[in-house]
Description:
Layout: H1 3-13, E1 21-22, H2 30-39, E2 53-58, E3 61-65, E4 71-76, E5 79-84, E6 89-94, E7 97-106, E8 112-122, E9 125-137, E10 143-154, E11 157-170, E12 173-185, E13 196-208, H3 227-233, E14 243-254, E15 257-270, E16 276-281, E17 284-292, H4 303-315
Parallel strand pairs: 1-9
Antiparallel strand pairs: 2-3, 2-17, 3-4, 4-5, 5-6, 6-7, 7-8, 8-9, 9-10, 10-11, 11-12, 12-13, 13-14, 14-15, 15-16, 16-17
Amino acid sequence: MSKKNYLGILAFAMFAMAGAGFVACGGDGDDDEAERENNGSSTAGLLDHDFSTRIKSAGDYRFFYNGNGQVDYIVDGDTRYDFSYRPNKIVQSYKDVEQAVYSVTYNGYGFITRLDVEEVYEDNGKVEVSGSSLFEYSNTGHLLSVNSSAVLKLNGETINVTNTATLTWQNNRLTSAVWETIEKDEKGTTMDGEAYNYTIDLQASDCTNWHHQHAPSISAAYGGGGASEALAFVKLFGYGPQYLPVSCTEIMTYKGSTSEHKTWQFSYGLNDDRSLSYCTVDNKRWNYGYEHLATDTRAETSENATQGRRHFRMFRTVHSR
């Protein structure tokens, strides 16, 4: 496996290290908060505070849940992410071969606030990797900043990798994200001479995202596809924007010049309950699938669900259609 592929795997865990923690609105005490952190999220994938509908698919992603309403595993073609709780872990595998193990910390609202790389594998054995990532959210549940750091030992070479990002929100619209990646050798010298910078600009539309869902139209701002995208669909990286973009422009800058420039166009469809039925990215259509939960199987009895419902009501704006 090449260095580039290793960094692709690490991108999942190397998401954020600067000032993690959800800025909570209210709370029921430190003991309860700590308890909810250990439990993970019992509201994952649920569209709204009434807990009647839960996402089951988006594009090629398939989502599965345990009896407590937590994510059990996610399937993306031949790639699978298995979740366990107490201790909280995510195991990433490809064609049933384990690739990486991550230790996870959740806050009281079920958002991931910390990821630690434990193990990353290649075909001929384990790779030495260490690193931690933290996530910062706004008081409306939006991901604000990403800053990560990892040390990778590969073929006798030590590489220090940092990723930082700032996401900008205005009036519940995600308007831009700026990512920077720096690789340094063991002497602290920046490899390739300079950092890589990615700027993602999103043009918001008037398409209301009634349930604050994630969509592939904003995935670039969250670090691209793969694991980060899969977890965002079940709201483990906070709530989506209230209004979805109609276009996105990504510019990569290296050594002061633009080395890559991409633009995408988006459109959307809604179901009768105003959940997303599809999102098109240029010519690719992403269809959404859901399951409707019976009243007696909803996760309303858990303290975690109660807190998530209370918080969601605090910032959700009621619209007329």
